[in-house]
Structure formats: structure tokens, C-alpha cells
Amino acid sequence: MPLSRRHFLRNTAATSLAFSGLAALSACQRRYPAEQGYFNQVEGFGELRVDPDGLFDLPRGFTYEVISSAGQPMSDGLVVPGDFDGMACFQRADGRLVLVRNHELRLGDGDKSPFGPDNALLDRIDRDRVHDWDEAGNPHLGGTSHLVLDPETLAVEDEYLSLVGTMNNCAGGPTPWGTWLTCEETELNIGPQAGKEHGYVFEVPADVSGLVEPVPLKAMGRFRHEAVAIDPRTLIAYETEDQYERALFYRFLPDVPGQLAAGGRLQALGVRGRPALDTRNWQSAGIAQGEWLEVEWIDLDDVEAPNADLAQRGIEAGAAHFTRGEGIWWGDNECYFTCTDGGPERLGQIWRYQPSPAEGQPGETAQAGRLQLFFESHDEAVMERCDNLCVAPWGDLIVVEDGPEDQYIRGVTPDGEVYTIGRNAASGPEGQKSEICGPCFSPDGSTLFFNVQRHPGRTFAVRGPWPARSL
Description:
By secondary structure, this protein is mainly beta. It has helices at residues 12-27, 310-316; strands at residues 48-49, 56-59, 63-69, 84-91, 97-103, 142-149, 156-166, 169-174, 179-184, 201-205, 225-230, 237-241, 249-254, 264-271, 292-299, 325-330, 335-339, 349-354, 370-376, 386-391, 397-401, 408-412, 418-424, 436-441, 447-452, 458-463.
């Protein structure tokens, strides 16, 4: 059934009451068939139906198409690279949809290369557009690809490589000016495996028709990047860090709004009055679900971090201590980001940040931004290892999983209640499941796109009775 519109902004007392009820519900005996394997806290769209093709289970009334698979030929004469990850959807001036998709590839992933076996197709591209090579002359294989779709039929009209030579391109984020920010989840130094430092953000326009010149946005920091969200009001960028046990939440203040390559100032979030606050809740529930915390922002120096110690130095300066920051997405004057292994059971957290009315300006100290632990999972059947996410057109969160068990797409209401939208039904040759990643909607809200990363790697388009867009 369609979900009713609920406002995200609640007063503190009401939010605390809602979350106390949610915690009690999670702790009670599960009321779902053991074979179902998931638990809906609200009805959502109903139970999942088994896909006869064994690829993806969805509720009644929803259908999917596989619009791209790893290893298939592309329009540029290369092959679709493997290890799909973050993704966003744009609409061109001619009405065509464009998906810009990451590939989380490393050296040694030659079987998933866009250049085919033994990089036999490498001569089809301009080698000067490859960002980096190892000392043996092998190209780095991470990057992005573009899919151009008919908005009605979803037929792929064009598919091509758009960035290559980077490493471990995990997630990223769309910008209000029509580009995709793709993030390297690595801190690889110059050496036998690399002629350049890695661990940067790169910008790829949605309207390019081939390989872009790769330009690392060094002022945005060098660390194990995961994702980026841009506040359309201020054009400030917010960044997550997928570092095990120790990570920061970053803010980048551009010198020229909308021109990230022009430089800027990198900062880390801290909590007022609680320096170096450990937000992980591993040892105890030090931060309650629904609790609001006033924030401050701490300037960082030496942001290219040759010693891969940016998070450690930030924590020593008083920045809040997160773990495995993953997906981030901008909503209605606020953003949401996940920490995959946060919480006492290490099943994941979703955080919510609301900027100051004077965000990034001298007056923000008088009206501080604030941070909330929006959701923390205590039951893998409700949510396990939240990863990428986006804000749905009707206001709920769409969250995908990267855990050791079955991988689901979850919806989360503005009240913090979880329901299940889909399940990856496919397995690898040894029964292994692959993470779901890159959820995003078409601009008109009719289609949810996402990737299943491996076995072999597929991009899906799902249509069905989605709720109406929120006004």
C-alpha cells in the first residue's frame, strides 16, 4: 500500500518516544515466518514474491528489467566493466536519461576490465585519458561508465566508459550542476602498484560522450572516500569515509561555489562539549536513537595526508569518531548518511545532519547545525549493514545492504520504521550473495535504479506503484 506523507521534522520528545517504541519492537520475539527472513516494522508494499528467474524478489505489482550486465559489449567497443557500485540518474536536455555508474575495480581485476582479457582492447582508447598505471605498464581499472536510456522504454541507446585509471571507485554523489562525483575508497601511495597517489574525488559530467580527463579534487581530502552530498542551498559538500573502526564526517567549503576544482577548506564534524565523541555505540548505547547533538566544525590541515592519518589527526583535534561511513544523500534541507557497522550489534546506523541557517558562515556558531542518530539496527531481519542510500521522491529513505546474509533493499519512514522493498535472489558459483548498491530514482520518480555488484554485476530498473512525489 502507498505510504502516507509524514514530516521529517519532529520535536525531540516525540522523536524519543517513537524510538523507544521502535527499540522495544526490535527486542521482542520476531513475528515472521522463518523462511521469510525479514521483518517489516510497517506494512510498506507487502510481502516479497519469489522471482521465477531467480534474480530479484519484489512485492506484488512491481517489475524489474536488467538493463546492463558486466562483460557485455558497449557502444564504444569496450566491454561493461565489473564490480558495479554507486550511481546517479540525470536527465539530458533532449529528455534522455543518463546513469553514471561506478566500478570498484583494483589492479588484478583483469577479468572484469573494460578492455577485455589481457587488456586486448586497450588500444581503442586514448592512453592519455588513463589516470594511472603500475610500473609494469598495466592500467588501473577503476572508474565510471555511462548508460543513456530512452525514458519511456528504458532501452539502452548508448553505453560507454567515461573515467578510467582510478582505483576502488565506491560511491559518490550527484551535484546540482549536473555532474557525478566518484570517490576512491583507498589510500594507495606511489610505488610499484601506482605512479600517483590515490584516495581522491573525481568529477564526471553527466553529458560527456566519452572519456573525461581525470582530475583529482585534492582539496577535498585524501582518505578512504565513500560518498558525497551537495547542499543545493549553499553548494557545500559533505563527505563520508569508509574506514574500519576510525572515520570522520567531513565538510568541504568551496572557494568558488559550484567549482570544486578551484579549491576550498576541509573540516570535520565535532560535537559541542564532547570532544572526540565516540559515536559508534560499540561498547554501550552512549548516544540514544533520536538524540540531537549540536555540532561544531574543526579545520583540518595537510589534507592530502601522505601518511594516511587524516582521521586520526582529526579525532585528536576533537572531531567525532565514526566507523565505516558509507552512503550519503541530501533531502529536504538535511542529509542522511550510514555507518555500516555502527551500533552494539554492529548492524549499522543511519545519521541525520541538519545544517545551520548560517552554514559555513561566521554566524553559524550562534545557530549550530545538529546531528541525530536517526536509526540504529538491533536485528538483522530489520536491517543488516546499511550501505548506499537515497531519499525517495515521496520522502522515505531507500537503503541497501552489504552484509554477510541475504541482501535487501529497505525503506525507512520519517518515523524511523523499516519495511522491505526487495531482495537479491541471485548467488555466485559458490552460493555467495553480492551487495546491492547505487540506488537512485529517475527525475520523474517512476523508476528506481540500482546495481547488484557481482555475479556477474547487473544494473536493474524497477517500476511499480511507488507513492506520489511529496510536495
